[in-house]
Design goal:
Distance between the termini: 36 Å
Number of strands: 7
CATH superfamily: Glycerol-3-phosphate (1)-acyltransferase
Radius of gyration: 16 Å
Largest sheet: 7 strands, mixed
CATH class: Alpha Beta
Structural class: alpha/beta
CATH topology: Glycerol-3-phosphate (1)-acyltransferase
Number of helices: 7
Strand order of the largest sheet: 1-7-6-2-5-3-4
Amino acid sequence: MNKLYSFLYVFVWLFMKIFHPWRAAGVENIPEGAAVICGNHTTAGDPLYVVCAVGRKRQLHPMAKEEIMKWPVIGWILKKAGIIGVKRGAADVEAVKSSLQVLKNGERLLIFPEGTRVRDGMTSEAHTGAALFATRTGAPLVPVYITPEKRIFRKTDVIFGQPYHPEFEGRKPTANELQAIADDLMERIRALGEAAK
C-alpha cells in the first residue's frame, strides 16, 4: 500500500462522505489481485466515487489526463500516490508501460474506457486501452457503473459487476478483437445501470 495514497484517502473519504456520499454494491466482486476496473464517466468526480467505494485497504491506480498531472504541487502529489497520467489523443507509451507494471505487480488499475466524460444518454466509442491491458497481463476486467446524476448530500450508486476474462483467438488479439472487447465491456457497464433501475 502506497503510504501517500493511504494518507490522502482519509481526506478524500471524509470530503466525499459529507458532500458526495456513495452507496456501494458488488464490492465482493473485486478480485484480491490484479484487475482492470472500468467504469462509465459522466463527471470529474467519478474516480473519487470508485476509490471510496472500493475502500482504503484496496489501493487503486486511476488513469488521469496528463493536464492534471502538470498542476503545480498537486500533480506531483498525485503521481507519488500512484495516479497515472495519460496523454489523450496520442499513443502514450509511458502510460501504457506504467499501467502494465501496475497489473504485473498484482495491483488494480482504474480506467474509464470512454476516455472522456460522456453525458447521460449520450454514447461514445470505447477506447481499447482496458482491453489491451487485460489481454496482455491476464488480469480480469471488472465493470463498474456510477450513477450519472449526482447531487450534493445525496447518495450516488457505485455498482461493481462480475470480473471476467475477455475471449479472443490466437496468442494476441487483433485490433478488431480489442475493439470488440472494449465495446462488450461498455455494454456490460451499461447493463449494470439498467439492472439497477
